[in-house]
Design brief:
The chain has 409 residues and is mainly alpha-helical. The protein is built from 20 helices and 5 strands. It folds into 2 domains: 86 residues, no CATH class; 295 residues, no CATH class. α1 runs parallel beside α4. The protein is globular.
Length: 409
């Protein structure tokens, strides 16, 4: 395709452009459920030139709305800005990390405040029963808590199935899904993430759970909710029904490092509370009890509440690495200090933060959780109104810009 050529169908051009990025960085196309001929064309065509992709993204954005309704044109335009930035990076252009994140996810990031982290540590010490503890004493208390929180490896697969079944039943009552929808869970290793949803289309997902590091009583329910019900799998299914099913074919592709990633990760991080309420720990404790495991719901909630104050630590680590050029060992020590994690866990985090494809992605969790939480809070802390608002995230092609406009009203 020649530079700047636009056909009569801007959506098809957008899909062609997005699919081409997978030839440059495998995994850039997170999911594609559209016309197979377009994927074959992308796979068998000449290797794309990143500079040409940047020009195509800019030309297509300039041509919008190209007959599309304003909301669809705005959605595609925001993703074309992200794709143009990715293409420029692939072409070797130097782009500041903060500007890179803003182009990808339509948010402007700033460093967190260490005073906030100190306050979180004080609350953590209280939750762990060691009031006033700091430094090594607090880290040791947290390590003891985490060891007691580990799930025996032989029970992980059974618990995944149990939590997925319970969440699926709850979610389908509120957000109906096709009878044919299904999630297949499997375990993997040697990955920079804890879990990953591969959406296959036709209401089917494969969810991989990384077992390089232990699974924990306090986090496994959230992982299943995040990846499946009512998180990524549920969102993909609902959007396939309600958007793709009504001809909005731009939603047949899901691309890494675009605004839809921030929306999806923020949604998924709020998924467990949306499905089971803010007292989900009691529900989890009953399931664990059936397997002979004791889960202290009250303490888990207290620790989780305290840890919420540390939300921005991983983004600060990314800023240190990519904005200030900090040494890897120094960043690992920063993560160990504030997140109270062991060296092996900090190094696992660095794998994600230094991956060429995923290095900016941490902001989808940090800024996505914060922005979507603020937007959901408009409907109150819990109840039917908040759940209905969460349903809009599942069903509508919302973007960070749309949420900010609604919050400003």
């Amino acid at each position: 395709m020649s530079v700047g050529r636009i056909t009569d169908d801007p959506v098809t051009e957008y899909l062609r452009l997005g699919l081409a990025f997978d030839r440059i960085e495998e995994g850039f196309v997170d999911a594609y459920t559209g016309d197979p001929a377009l994927r074959v064309e992308a796979e068998n065509g000449p290797a794309p030139d990143p500079a040409d992709l940047a020009n195509r993204a800019r030309a297509l954005r300039d041509a919008l709305p190209a007959g599309l309704p304003a909301d669809r044109a705005e959605f595609i335009a925001s993703h074309l800005r992200a794709l143009e930035c990715s293409a420029r990076k692939f072409a070797g252009e130097e782009i500041g990390f903060v500007d890179e994140v803003q182009a990808y996810f339509d948010v402007r990031i700033e460093p967190g405040e260490e005073d906030v982290y100190r306050e979180a540590h004080a609350r953590m010490a209280d939750a762990l029963g060691v009031p006033g503890a700091t430094g090594d004493a607090l880290r040791a208390a947290y390590a003891r808590y985490r060891r007691a929180d580990e799930i025996p490896a032989e029970l992980v697969a059974q618990l995944i199935a149990e939590f997925a079944g319970s969440l699926r039943e709850t979610v389908r009552r509120e957000f109906p899904l096709p009878d044919t929808e299904i999630v297949d869970f499997g375990v993997v290793g040697d990955k920079p993430w804890s879990g990953f949803n591969y959406y296959l289309g036709d209401y089917r997902s494969k969810v991989a759970v990384n077992t390089d590091l232990p699974q924990y009583l306090s986090s496994l329910p959230g992982l299943i909710a995040h990846e499946a019900y009512p998180g990524h799998h549920t969102e993909h299914c609902r959007k396939e029904q309600r958007l793709v099913g009504t001809g909005q074919l731009e939603h047949t592709v899901f691309l890494v490092n675009t605004p839809q990633c921030l929306m999806a990760e923020g949604l998924a991080d709020h998924a467990l509370a949306a499905a089971m309420g803010t007292s989900w720990q009691e529900w989890a404790s009953r399931i664990y009890a059936d397997f002979g495991l004791r889960f202290d719901a009250e303490r888990a909630r207290a620790v989780s509440t305290a840890a919420a104050g540390l939300l921005r630590v991983r983004q600060d680590a990314a800023l240190a690495l990519h904005d200030r050029g900090a040494d890897l060992d120094d960043v690992a020590a920063f993560l160990q200090r504030w997140l109270l994690v062991a060296p092996d866990r900090s190094r696992q985090m660095l794998r994600f933060l230094t991956s060429p494809l995923w290095r900016a992605y941490i902001s989808t969790y940090v800024e996505g959780y914060a922005l979507l939480g603020q937007w959901l809070d408009v409907a109150g802390p819990a109840g039917p109104a908040r759940l209905a608002r969460f349903g809009r995230l599942l069903d509508e092609p919302l973007t960070p810009a749309v949420l900010r406009r609604e919050l400003a009203l």
